[in-house]
Structure formats: C-alpha cells, structure tokens
Write a structure and sequence with these properties.
The complex is a heterotrimer.
Chain A: H1 3-6, H2 12-42, H3 49-55, H4 59-74, H5 82-94, H6 96-99, H7 101-124, H8 129-147, H9 157-163, H10 172-190, H11 192-202, H12 204-209, H13 214-240, H14 251-261, H15 273-293, H16 301-323
Helix pairs in contact in A: 2-15, 2-16, 4-10, 4-13, 4-14, 4-15, 5-8, 5-13, 5-14, 7-13, 9-13, 10-11, 10-15, 14-15, 15-16
Chain B: E1 7-18, E2 21-32, E3 36-41, H1 47-55, E4 62-67, E5 70-71, H2 77-82, E6 85-88, H3 100-107, H4 116-131, H5 148-159, E7 169-173, H6 181-196, E8 200-204, H7 208-214, E9 217-222, E10 225-231, H8 237-245, E11 267-271, E12 282-285, E13 289-294, H9 300-308, H10 310-313, E14 317-319, E15 323-326, H11 330-334, H12 341-346, E16 354-355, E17 358-359, H13 361-375, H14 391-403, E18 409-413, H15 421-436, E19 440-444, E20 456-461, E21 464-470, H16 476-483
Parallel strand pairs in B: 3-8, 3-9, 6-7, 7-8, 13-19, 13-20, 15-18, 18-19
Antiparallel strand pairs in B: 1-2, 1-4, 4-5, 9-10, 11-12, 11-14, 16-17, 20-21
Helix pairs in contact in B: 3-4, 4-5, 14-15
Chain C: H1 2-9, H2 13-29, H3 35-61, H4 71-86, H5 93-117, H6 122-141, H7 150-157, E1 159-160, E2 163-164, H8 165-183, H9 185-195, H10 197-202, H11 207-232, H12 244-254, H13 267-285, H14 290-308
Antiparallel strand pairs in C: 1-2
The chains are: A mainly alpha, B alpha/beta, C mainly alpha.
Chain lengths: ~325, ~500, ~325
Amino acid sequence: MTDAVVEPSSSRAANSAARARMLRAMLPALSFALVVIAIAWLNPRAISYFGFSLMLNLAIPIALATIAQMFVIASNELDLSIGTFVGFVGCVTATWLRDAPLVGALILLGSIGVYALLGALIHLRNLPSIVVTLGMSFVWQGLAILTLPTPGGKAPDWLSAIVGFKPPFIPFPILAAIVIALIVHFGLMRTSYGAILRGSGGNPVALGRAGWSILRVKMTLFALAGLFGVLSGMTLVGITTAGDANIGNGYTLLAIAGVILGGGEFVGGRVSPIGAVLGALTLALAASPLLTFMKIPPDWQVAANGVILIVVLAARVLISRRER
Amino acid sequence: MSVPRSNIVRLDGVEKHFGAVRALDGVDFQVDTGECIGLVGHNGAGKSTLMNTLAGTLAPSRGRIAIRGTVEENYSVIRAQRLGIRCVFQELSLCPNLSVAENTRVNHASLKGFGWRRRSAALISAKLDEIFPGHGIDPSDVVSDLSIGKRQMVEVARAFTVTEAPLDLVILDEPTSSLDAHTAGQLLAFVRRFVETGKSCILISHLLGEILDNADRIVVMRDGKVVAIDNASSFDRTRLVTTMGGGNHAEKPATRAETIAKQAGPQRVRARSGRQTDSTELVAHEGEIIGLAGLAGHGQTELLLSIFDARAAGRNVEVTAPVALVAGDRQTDGIFAQWSIGKNIGIRSLTRLRNGLLISPRKENEMAEAWKKKIGIRTPDMNNNILSLSGGNQQKALFARALGSDARIILMDDPMRGVDIGTKLEVYDLIRDEAKAGRTFLWYTTETDELEHCDRVYVFRSGVIVASLNRGEVTEEKVIQSSFSEAS
Amino acid sequence: MTQIRAVFSTPWIWSFVGAFVVWLATITFTGGVGGGGMLTAALSLAVFMVIVGVGQMFVITLGPGNVDLSLPANIGLASAVAMTVMNGQDSRIALGILAALASGAAVGAANYMLIWALRIPPIIATLSASFIIHSIDIAFGRGLQIKPPPGFADFTNVQFLGIPVMAMLTVLFTIGAGIALNRMIYGRSVLAIGQNLRAAWLAGVNVGWIRFFTYTLCGMLGGLNGALLAGYFRGANVDIGNEYLLSSIAVVVIGGTSVAGGKANIPGIWGASLFLVLLLTMLNTFGVSAGVRLLLTGLIIVGVITAAGGEKSLR
C-alpha cells in the first residue's frame, strides 16, 4: 500500500490505476477522519485522552473480530459464526481460563483447531461457507450456554490488568489498534507466505499450478481467523469483566461491515489489515458516541451502520467507474 | 537437421482424446537443445493440447513423453518444472491482487525469509530489464493496475527467472498477442539470445512473420497431427499457408448451393464494431447466410453478442426482427445441465407453449417431438437429461431451441465445435432450408469449409472487419491470407 | 410411473423420514402420550418456516451468491406494521395483511436496488439493508403494545380435525408455489438463471426483471410471515423474526434445494420444517438444556450440508 506512494512508477496507465486504488485505499482513513472531525465539532471535549479511552472502549474486540473475518474473506469465504464464537470464547475465558488455566487454554487452542478443520471441510467438500458457518454459529452458542448458562463468571485478573493498561499520552485502545494493524499488516502483506495466502483469493488455479497446496492455505487462513476470534473474545471479557453467551452476537455483522468499510472485497483476495482495523474503529465510533453527540436516538444507531456501509460502497463504485 | 544434437523433449505417438474428439492424433516430434521451434496451425489443429501435454497439465491418452532421453511415467506440472520445462499460458496465470514481485515469489518456493521482497524484486526487475529494456514496470506495481500488455511482459519475464530449478525449455503460447511491435521485437530478440546459450524454446504464434524470422525449425499441425516439420529456411509464407490449410479438402457438401442470383430482401441487421475505424459494417438481409471468419477470438463473438443485445449496443447496431443465438461453447453458454432435452429446447419459446398462465406439458412435448424428428436428435426419450446426449446431439438441441423460436435472425457462435461430420451435414441442410424460408443467419465459424455455405463472408482480425468476400470469392487461402497479418 | 419412481429417488423424501423418526423417538419417550398434539403444534410452527423458506428458496435458486439475509429485520418490521394498521379491530385485518405485504415487498425491492445499483454481492446488500430496516423497526415498533384483533389471533390458532387451518392454507400456498416453479414462465426462468445465468440471458430470459421479482417476492413472504407471527404470538416484537435467518436457509438446504442454484424443491421445505420443529420438540421433551439444543441443531445442519454437499459455494 505504501510502496505505490514512495516509488514512482514510470508508466502512466499504471499510475492512474494505482491512483484510483490509492484513493480507494484512503477511503477507510477518510471515513474514520470524517467521523472524528464530526465528533470534535459536536463535542470538542470528547477529543481527549479520557474521551478516546471511553469512546473506543469496545473497539479492540471489534477490531480483532474484524481481522478474524478478514482472514476468511481473503480466501473468498465468509464466516457467519464469528460473533457467537467470540461469545463462546468469552464464556470460556470467564470460567475455565480463570479457574483452571491449563484446561481453559487447551479448550481455546482446540477451538482454533476446529476452525482449521472447518477450512479443510469447506475446501475438500466444496461446501458453501455461509451455510456451514451459519450452522457453526449455533454450535458455538450452544457451547457458550453450556459453559455459562447465565451471564457471570469473572475475567482472569491478568487479563483485566492488560486491558486496563493506561499508557502515557496515547489512549490504550488507539495504541492497541496500531499494534494489531501493524502486526497483521506485516504478517499478511509483507511475509513471503502472506503473499501466498492472499494469492489463494486472487487466482487459486495459478497457485495450484505453481505447486502450492490450497488445502494448507485455507486451513491456515481459517486457523488465523480462529486465533483472532479467541483474542477478540478474551479482550472483550477483559473489558466487560464478566462473560455472557450472547455478548458477541452482534460481532458477526460488525466484522463483515468492518472488512468491507476497510476496503476489503468479497472475492479476489483484496483485503487490507490496516483498513480493516480503521473500519472497525469507524464503526465503533459511529455506532454510538457520534450518534449520541448528534442527539440521534439510540434506535437509529444500527441504521447508521447500514447507511455508512452503503455510502462507502457507493463511493467505491463511483471510484471504480472512473478507473475504467 | 544437420548436426545431431541432444534432444530435451521427445514425443512418440502421443494421442489425446476428449470423448470422441481426437485433439492429438499420434504426434511424434522432438525439441533439441539450442533451437527455437515455431509451431503453427489453424484453430483446433491441436497446438494448445500439445503444449498442455508438454507442460504436464494434460496427461496424454496414449504415447510416450521422454525428457532428455528418459521416459517419464508420471509426468505432471511439478515434474515438468523440476526438469526445467516452463510454459507461459495464453490465459494469464498471475494473481491480480498481488504485486509483480509477489507474483514472482509464487513461482519460486525458495524466495522466502528475510529480504525476500528485495530479492524477488531484484530477480524480476533484472529479467524485465534484460528482455524489455525501458519496460516501465515497477516490481511493487499491483498486477491488476497494469495494462494487459504489461501483464503479459511480467508473465513472460517470470517464466525466464531462475532460482533453484533449472531452465531448459520455455513454451510461449502467443506471447506477443498483447504486445506492441516494439516490445514484441524485444521479446523475439531475447528468445534468439536465449536459444544461442544452448536453451530451447517453442514459439506458438499466428503471426507467420514472427515464426519465419525467429524459428530454427517449423512444425505445422493440422487436425491433431503434425503434417510438416522442416527447417525454417525451407518455408515461405505461401508454403506455410498452404500446408496449414491443406490441399486435400474434405468432401464438398454434395448440394453445393447453386449460385442463385438472390433477390435481396429487406435489411435485417446492420452492425459495426466500436473498434472499427473505417466505415466497414456488417449487413445482412432477409434469407441471407452471412459468414464471420478469421482466427478464433478476433472479435466475431463480441459482434454477435452486440447484435444479440442490440438495445444496449446503441447506434452501432440495428436489428429489425427477433433474434436467437446458437451457442458454440455449449457448457458455458448453452446447456441447462439439470434439464431434459425437451425443456432445453423449449426455454426460448415458453410464451408460445402456454395454456393460459401455465406451461402446457403437452405442447412442450409436441415441440420436443417435432424437433426430434426434424433435426434428428438421437435419443429414446426427449425427457432424458440433456447430458445423456453426445456433443453433436446436444448441439442439435441448441439449434432446435433457436430454430423453433419466433426469431427471424439466428446468430451462430461457432456452433460446430467438436461436432461429428454426420451431424454437421444434417444441420447444413437445415440451415439452407430455413434461409430459403426467409430466415437470416449470421454464422461465425472457425472451419473454413463451412464458409462455402455463406452468401457473404466477413473476415475479422483484431476486433475489426478486414475483408468482405462474396460467394465464389471465398477460398481457404484468401481467408487465411486475410486472417494472418503480414508484419508483426 | 416415472413420476412415482422419481418421488422415491429424490433426496427430500429423507427430510420427511427424518421428521417421522424424530416424532417416533419422542412419542416412544413419552410412552405414546401427546403424539397427536405434538403434530398439531409442530404443524402450526412449521408454517412460519415454510412461508419464509419458500421465499428464500426462490432467491437461493437464482444461483451462487444469492441469499436474503434481511428476513429477520423484515419480519420484525412487518409484524409491527401489521399490528399498527390492524389496530386491534377485526374489520381492519385484511388491510393490515396488505400493509405487511407492502412493507415486505418494499424491503425486497430495496434489496435488489442495492444489488443492482451498487453492484454489490446480495449478501452484503441484504445485510446493509437489514441494519437500516432493523433500526426503522426499533424506532417504529418501540413500546408497541397493540394486540392483534381477536379474529386474527383466533384465525392463527383455529384447527379443523386437529389440523391448524393455517397449515392447510399454507399447503395450498406451497402447491401454488410449486406450480409457479414448475409450470410458469417465472419459475422456469428462475431455474434457468440459477443453472447458468449467461446461458439464460442468451436463451432470451429477462434476467434483470426475474431477479428483481424474486427478491421482491421473498420480501413479501417475509412480510406475510411477520403479520402471521404477530397474530400467533399475540403481538409484534422487534426480535420476532430472529430465528428465521438461519432456519429459512436451513429448511431450503435440508429440503433438497441446491445451494449452487438451479434446482429447487418445494415439498422438501415442508419436510425440513417439520423436521426442525419436531427436533426442537424432541429435545425439549427429553428435557435437554437450551445449550444442548442449540449445539445439536447446529451440528445437524453442518452434518446435513456436509452429507449433501460437494457443490459450488453460495458466494
């Protein structure tokens, strides 16, 4: 993403196409900036260390769930179970991980393994991922309720301590978002195997012809989705301090929206980790603080997410049209 | 053939069957070290199948492949790459969402670890600089941002990069199809230098000039067979064209239409391609059979589709009667694979098959049976699944769909691909009868023989009409002459 | 003759077999008590799944990538619209149902407009739309305490010989849907598009219009379902349609409709709906917890799709 700016390309055609792509890549940052500016205008006091810490309180789990969804979308699939999976992880974290850390850790590792197996199943049997993951969403929710029939439990103390960390100058959620975005960006966009992972969404046939195992690629991507789902559930419980089987239900749709807002596309392996994190932050800000400041009743806050999504998609269609 | 050199690849009696079609019908040939082989032939002569067999993507039905004298039993893409044989496929095999450097990494498992991006970028840059000086491609460019010509340059250059696996033979399938004259020249010059270092190359091109100027030996294919192998110096353009076209024509249709001076009926179709710069346009009248000729993929199908979708095509196309299309690519454009033969025929005529609001099974069966008889579909029951038919009979069902409809203009998109000769002759008769009854046919075909049924033939090259031949003027030589451009 | 053989070789018969087995298992557990009542209750609840299932079936049959994720929000909104328009008066029942249908049709048409104008995959289009519809519903339906008109509420519960009248009407409706699917130009066109969109276009099918109509139809059925649910459960509710996101897709897939498009099955939707409802009844009778119930439902859906799978994905 950055290379295109730094290194001038001598070709005109590639330049204009790259410019359009740049513009598209800038959209997530632009929409995020717009939301922040709107908040600053409506309520200047919100733009402060304390204000951001508060407003972005829940942004980190959303960002992690969005990254999880992004890995799945990178392989041209879709995960409709990530929300209930996050809820399940939350329940395990608030019970087993606190009471019997070893068992808890094994359960979470096992669930990542289940994700990898789902990737294999979807690839080998050529199944529609949305039906499989829709079914899995029931499985995770059932397991969550079995683990924690009523909301309760307690986050492990070390976890609460981590998410309660107050770094100097930069609010923790922003610092964490930057760290997450950079780590995933490095892993997926800069490593040699990351290129193969993304290539599987772009042209799996060519990858197979060059001797790569698509099965392995798919399992890796799904396992990464599971890993980030686990991280999302853990941080969520760290922040809310207690588990609830239904706590993550809204995350499925938020995560898809975040990836799309962040410039990702459903097919073709075009995803951007930095964009996805920005998209998640935008949604987190737009979802409640902005609308509260705008005195929009909470009833309409979900709609705002839908409208933002549609506006961004419309903007993208306009940009792509100009590309032609 | 002067000094015996060691050969890299040797094919003995290689055959490849797709169902009843023999795409390769006993091919023997070999590639020696340090030579460039030019491979030419008309559409469907078997060039692509041969190339895929060499690259390991298709396993031969019969025959032997030997690499450097060793017979390969389980030949595959991976094996071919390990043995130093690479292939640049006509359809691009780059990942459009990755950068040029990342795409290079896809082909080289050893490009990993610290600094792989730098090494990969250096590798592809060096090769691009070597082949296409002044190419203007940056290794960090994302492939989908590049023009089609630049993508082809990247694809070609990537095939010549070397890390761990050896590189002895590169197969280039129409490598210059998207390149301008300058870059094409650069590539061909590079191929000569490559060959002079003792490596080998197979060059497939429809630009005969390219082949004559750059190949050491030329292999001419026709109907799945190698019909001539000789030193390039012993060929000239005329000899190539006649060898490709073949002297012995298939039996001329017995009822070679009497040259009737046809009364030109009212105009049915007027169309021109958006890329056409002069005023040439395609015109068809009632009762005419119009041929669209030239090499495959030179804009014939596009023009047919714009006639089919005349409302969307705007001022370039004018159509004055209902249109139906007979697809040539049956699987992607024609067949509904889950339906019976009867349903496949009826889909274009549903409004006529109704009783009130409901489709009448009786009328549907009647139509199916009528066409079973009329066009001779060989099946015990028209309610059988369409896939139970042979390719030729499937094609007859598609003809029945179009001819059974209310359309007065029938577009045919190379419909005889992979169809047996018996079926062809039956369909030719039907087409002539229907034309006599006032229907207009626009017939894109890659088989020159079929053009003899046409009242007028338009020859296409690079998306535009380059020649218009009237009945009587149409000869295979003339069509090939117009289809292959002189210079590269 | 061939038709009878075809009936027994079709996969949807197994959904009825499954439903029957589950029912048998349950009455074995209860010692034969309440078998009939259980069927009556199951028929009543299956009706709602069948109605949205038929709409979803037409959408899914359009081919890979087509699915309507806005049904839950659509159903919730329509339930509120119906109750508001009926306003508890028997004389306004028909008007209320019409309003629910119109609300659903508007949602469906809006869905297709997003798909067409923004050229975005139906999944994300219907998803974005559902966000907005959901909000409209929350704002509009908040604190809506209107009870359904007594006549309407009775209608959703009335039985004849132990069979809910609504189930009989729904059988008639599904027969109509079957005729539309197999004997009308509309159904033929949907099947053709689902098998091969390009071939359908080249065979003269009006692809754009058929797709538009299908999404609108699915929306309308969602609207109808909202009105009926509000009558059955004695009032509108924002979350009244939530379970129909999964179950509408599940009954279509379990019922033998191909997720790859182009092959649809109406009787299978009845079998699958009864199967799912009876499965829940069975798990309740066995006294398993909500968690186990969800877990088993999910596993069975994944199991069925895996067994029936091997086809190209929905996207």
